[in-house]
Amino acid sequence: MVEDCIFCEVVAGRSPSTKFYEDEDFVVIKNIYPVIEGHLLVVSKKHYDSFLDMPSELYGKALIVAKKVSEKEEIKDFNLVVNQGRIAGQIISHFHLHILPRKDGDGFRFMA
């Protein structure tokens, strides 16, 4: 736990969230500031400042969790995004993976 980390507060149950999935390493929550309808976040339960700080053995598990939730929620088309560092758009210094559900004509543009 890191003081003043909103995701640590969510994991500890001290901040409200809508949970879609939880296991020993990750929790999946609804983003309270979605960039698109259905925007979900795969959040590590242990605090890691970023993707680069998280142990390599958890990278694959984060993707497996994203797959499980996408299948469970019947999200067929989506973008998976990790913002690494402030310049790349990482606002919260706690590892999280964005699941951005896509619909035909949704108007969302992801520039790669």
Instruction: Assign an overall shape.
Output: globular
Helical residue percent band = 10-25%
As a whole number of angstroms, the C-alpha radius of gyration is 14 Å
- The CATH class, by name, is Alpha Beta
State the fourth-level CATH superfamily. HIT-like
Order of helices and strands: HEEEHEE
Number of strands: 5
Helix tally equals 2
What is the number of independent domains? 1
Q: Tell me what portion of residues adopts beta-strand conformation.
A: 15-25%
The main pleated sheet reads as:
5 strands, antiparallel
Which residues form runs of ≥5 with pLDDT under 50?
none
Indicate the mean pLDDT: 94
Distance N to C terminus: 33 Å
The CATH architecture would be 2-Layer Sandwich
Within the largest sheet, what's the order of strands? 1-2-3-5-4
The CATH topology is given as HIT family, subunit A
Structural class: alpha+beta
Topology:
Elements: H1 6-11, E1 19-22, E2 26-30, E3 40-44, H2 57-72, E4 78-81, E5 96-101
Antiparallel strand pairs: 1-2, 2-3, 3-5, 4-5
Fold and architecture overview:
This protein is an alpha+beta fold and 112 residues long. It has one domain: HIT family, subunit A (2-Layer Sandwich). The chain is built from two helices and five strands; from the N terminus they run H-E-E-E-H-E-E. It has helices spanning 6-11, 57-72, and strands at residues 19-22, 26-30, 40-44, 78-81, 96-101. Strands 1-2-3-5-4 form a five-stranded antiparallel sheet, covered by helices on one side. The protein is globular and about 40 Å long. The termini are far apart.
